[in-house]
Design goal:
Elements: H1 3-29, E1 35-39, E2 46-49, E3 54-57, E4 61-65, H2 69-90, E5 95-96, H3 97-103, H4 117-131, E6 140-141, E7 148-150, E8 153-159, E9 162-167, E10 177-178, E11 186-191, E12 195-199, H5 202-210, H6 213-216, E13 219-223, H7 230-243, E14 247-250, H8 255-266, H9 275-278, E15 284-287, H10 290-295, E16 301-302, H11 305-314, H12 323-335, E17 337-338, H13 351-363
Parallel strand pairs: 5-6, 12-13, 12-14, 14-15
Antiparallel strand pairs: 1-4, 2-3, 7-10, 7-13, 8-9, 8-11, 16-17
Helix pairs in contact: 1-2, 3-4, 11-12
GO molecular function: ATP binding; DNA binding; DNA topoisomerase type II (double strand cut, ATP-hydrolyzing) activity; magnesium ion binding
Family: Belongs to the TOP6A family.
EC number: 5.6.2.2
Length: 367
């Protein structure tokens, strides 16, 4: 995306913020009590769309009105935040979600100041919903996720210090290329990768890179860093959609890790309003699978009560209502065990790259 394209994107974001402010002015001029209609983000209004295969928001909305003290304060905070974001875009600056919380301390109306960061985070999400603009396009950043990419990909990244051409193997150390907050600032110049492997843990990511898995199999190794950040999911989706790369997700063998896979493939409840922007329904799960625990006799830990409850909950989750997942989850409940990626090291440090992943990826039709 060229500099001009980003300028246009920024201007569109500013226009949407100005339109929100104009609605309040129109309400005042018409003698109406100021209000703002927002899609409801409760679990009851989040549905699994069978056609697209992702979580999406339903049709329910709620009205935030100034006809109560509480509602008036929330609208006041929305107006101050809208003004701040518009000015930030005009000045081509950016800030973090954490900084926004502290910045509000300097606002001239104490009722506009946030009580805690959760409140400011939620307000940014509200503004995403009512404006149709993502926080990335508002130039709002989370704290660093630390997610990295390693593999045969040549990119051009637009930064405040100019464009940078980077090869994600040749121009980086073993740490890899760090994913920026807004992956839409990346232009794909050339790619020799055959597929993407999203890896949950840093330890396993380092093992794959040290063993040269990215080089040997023309693979992009994407470190998820636990529950993946929006930027990580967005880049993964772009690589899949624009370059046609298959996506495989490699996690620990426990219910919480299956949900990490689910967030990559189907989206999360928290970001259901952005599923079409973030989720990659075609992503496949590599492992660790419950059947691996018994097949490879992996070192394991007993399931805690919370693990069991989570697995039983996943049996009711539409994301996991397939023959594969029902069989795997039921097997895990039967054996009462969970295992980590690094448990594969019990069969040797090279087992994961020489045998486990090549065999599994070949079975899945990726290799």
């Amino acid at each position: 995306m060229s500099q001009t394209d980003h300028d246009i994107q920024d201007e569109k974001a500013r226009e949407r913020l100005i339109e929100l402010a104009e609605k309040f002015y129109d309400q005042f001029e018409g003698g109406d009590v100021p209000s703002m209609e927002i899609p409801t983000r409760t679990k009851t209004n989040i549905v699994f769309d069978e056609e697209s295969g992702v979580w999406v928001l339903g049709d329910r909305t709620s009205t935030r009105s100034a006809n109560s003290v509480r509602g008036a304060k929330k609208l006041l905070k929305s107006i101050y935040t809208t003004e701040f974001l518009e000015r930030q875009l005009e000045e081509n600056r950016s800030s973090t979600l954490r900084e926004l919380y502290y910045l509000s301390e300097s606002w001239d109306n104490e009722h506009a100041q946030f009580d805690n960061q959760d409140e400011s985070n939620q307000l940014i999400e509200d503004l995403e919903l009512v404006s149709g603009v993502t926080r990335e396009d508002f130039h709002m950043r989370p704290e660093e996720s630390g997610a990295k990419v390693m593999g045969p990909l040549h990119i051009r990244e637009q930064t405040n210090r100019g464009d940078r051409d980077i090869h994600c193997q040749d121009d980086v150390g073993q740490g890899g290329y760090q994913i920026p907050n807004n992956p839409d600032t990346i232009e794909f110049l050339d790619c020799d990768a055959e597929f993407i492997l999203c890896v949950e843990t840093g330890g396993m990511r380092d093992r794959l890179v040290e063993n040269g898995f990215d080089d040997d199999y023309d693979c992009l190794v994407v470190h998820l860093g636990g529950q993946p950040a929006r930027a990580t999911r967005r880049l993964t989706k772009r690589l899949h959609d624009e370059l046609g790369l298959p996506v495989a997700v490699f996690t620990d063998g426990d219910p919480w890790s299956y949900r990490i896979y689910g967030s990559v493939a189907y989206g999360s409840i928290k970001s259901a309003h952005l599923s079409e922007y973030l989720a990659t329904p075609e992503a496949q799960f590599v492992g660790i699978r419950p059947q691996d625990i018994t097949e490879y006799d992996l070192p394991s830990d007993p399931l805690a009560d919370s693990d069991t409850n989570a697995l039983e909950s996943e049996l009711e989750d539409p994301r996991f209502q397939t023959d594969f997942w029902e069989e795997q989850i039921q097997h895990q409940l039967d054996i009462g065990k969970k295992s980590e990626q690094q448990a594969l090291a019990a069969r040797g440090l090279d087992f994961v790259t020489d045998e486990y992943l090549p065999t599994r990826l070949d079975e899945m039709g990726i290799l």
